[in-house]
């Protein structure tokens, strides 16, 4: 073990922040750390929008389902998968860009996630707390309007940053044996392992909520996946020039 691994394993989502501000030099350094992440074919297909305007932040919080910390955190960043600058590169060289491919959507989204995880780890190494905000995709069309996103750009998620004003427990993860397979995909023992894990998660929720939440992981997942999952996303992404072929 080393300090980096211990830091990674100690991650918690922070949803309550102190009033201390973050200076721009710190945020710039965090974004530079994000830029150092691996990037598919050197595409560098992530754009970060730092949202400072209070009114815009408040509306983004409402778009995300009323998550107040979007407005209250010291900083709020939106990570966008961005293939527009690649069209600019083609234009600079008189080339016709072939866009709309599913592979381009995957690589741009993966670039964005890798970039954001670097930012998150860098922030936590400085004593900051973070929480990712996938809820922006609840009203992704309005988020795109607020951020004035052009074609070939879409918001993947947001990130709240600030100094933590809470100290939650680390949420238990699935057993390694469920995640790490050797040579082939073998899930013959996964049900038994998940049942054991379910009890860990149930105890975690009981502790975290003072007994007000009593739910296992598999119960939570099964309840989530019997519902529609943002069915508006496909039409929006196609409108933005993604997933057309």
TrEMBL record:
Residues 9-163 form the Nitroreductase domain. Coiled coil: none annotated. One of its GO terms (molecular function) is oxidoreductase activity. NCBIfam families: PRK10765.1. Keywords: Flavoprotein, FMN, NADP, Oxidoreductase. The keyword Metal-binding does not apply. This is NADPH-dependent oxidoreductase. It comes from the Bacteria. The keyword NADP applies. Belongs to the flavin oxidoreductase frp family. CDD domains: NfsA-like.
